[in-house]
Amino acid sequence: MFVKLRDLFIGVLFGLLSAGLILLVSRPREGRAVLLRPPPTLSPLVVNVDGAVRSPGVYTLPVNSRVGDAVEMAGGFTEDASPGSVNLAARLEDGSHVYIPQVRSESGSGLEGGTVLGISPEGEIIPLVNINQAPLDVLVSLPGIGPVTAEKIISYREEHLFSRVEEIQKVPGIGPATFENIKIYLTVGE
User: Fold this and answer.
1) pTM, two decimal places
2) pLDDT tens, residue by residue, 153-164
3) Of the CATH numbers 1.20.210.10, 1.10.150.320, 3.40.50.720, 3.40.50.880, which one belongs to the domain with range 101-190?
């Protein structure tokens, strides 16, 4: 009889341990459920293109579009456009304003091929100075450029034509601070 009770006790103990183990394993894990949402869809860019383009207006372009894409959407450049004064590879942002300046002939301007117009950070139309052709009196009109520095620019360009406006920093006396003040007024032509 003692053997039967011992076997019964071991059986009950084994059953309780098995039931506890099953409850422990099957218990739901704690934590919060993760809600999966679909990836956001990027909305197209809406940009205003005007100036020397065939069809100025507001255009809708795909995300990651460039200035060149906006010009193409506006029908391309007109005959009097100055595409060299705009970075066609720049990425567009929603609400961008793309202005393509035009070359306009002015008598007495002292610049061969007319005056190239640009746009200032404030949105005003400004004449751009072609550093490859501008005479002394036009170079002196740039902020922070005096007669001595203007002469250095003319001397430098007689040996090296500028291919980018940033190259004007190679002229002695024009450092990064001066360049930051004058860069919006500069062009190298087309």
Assistant:
1) 0.42
2) 998 888 888 888
3) 1.10.150.320
